[in-house]
Write a structure and sequence with these properties.
The chain has about 150 residues and is of the alpha+beta class. The chain is about 20% helix and about 45% strand. A five-stranded mixed beta sheet has the order 3-9-8-5-6.
């Protein structure tokens, strides 16, 4: 009898914990870039570690469409406004004030990548930005995202 009472208390405590986690949104989610409805959005913290785990989530179902995601930095004095002014542009290369740190290419589904920003000698501790491409055309951008050492 005593054992079943303890089991019921443990189960009750676990249920209360699950309800509280659900009400509070559960554990905080990591950085995620989502493509849905023709848009690209970033959700997650505004500060990330230098060893970054990023989830790329393509919900669009256009057959054969390739999506590219780039982790980039911008030259001093450049901002998200400068980057978003390039939306709709395509072609080879990037402006000289954009530095590519890493990238991911996918069609549909979800992929999580781990990136050591310091592995790229072009990274010097500055904030990062996310650039989203459909085929070779920029269609979304987010940032700045601060990086902690």
């Amino acid at each position: 009898m005593k054992t079943s009472r303890i089991s019921i208390q443990v189960v009750s405590a676990l249920l209360v914990l699950m309800v509280l986690m659900t009400a509070c949104g559960g554990a905080s989610s990591g950085p995620t870039v989502t493509v849905e409805g023709g848009t690209c959005s970033y959700t997650g913290p505004q500060k990330v570690p230098v060893n970054l785990s990023m989830t790329w989530n393509v919900k669009d179902t256009t057959p054969g469409m390739d999506y590219g995601f780039a982790i980039i930095t911008l030259a001093e004095g450049k901002t998200l406004k400068d980057l978003t002014a390039l939306i709709g542009s395509s072609g080879p290369g990037s402006p000289s004030w954009v530095t590519m740190i890493d990238w991911n290419l996918m069609t549909q589904g979800t992929s999580t990548g781990t990136y050591d920003l310091t592995a790229n000698s072009a990274y010097h501790g500055e904030p990062i930005y996310i650039a989203c491409f459909k085929d070779d055309t920029l269609f979304g951008a987010a940032g700045p995202i601060q990086v902690t050492q």
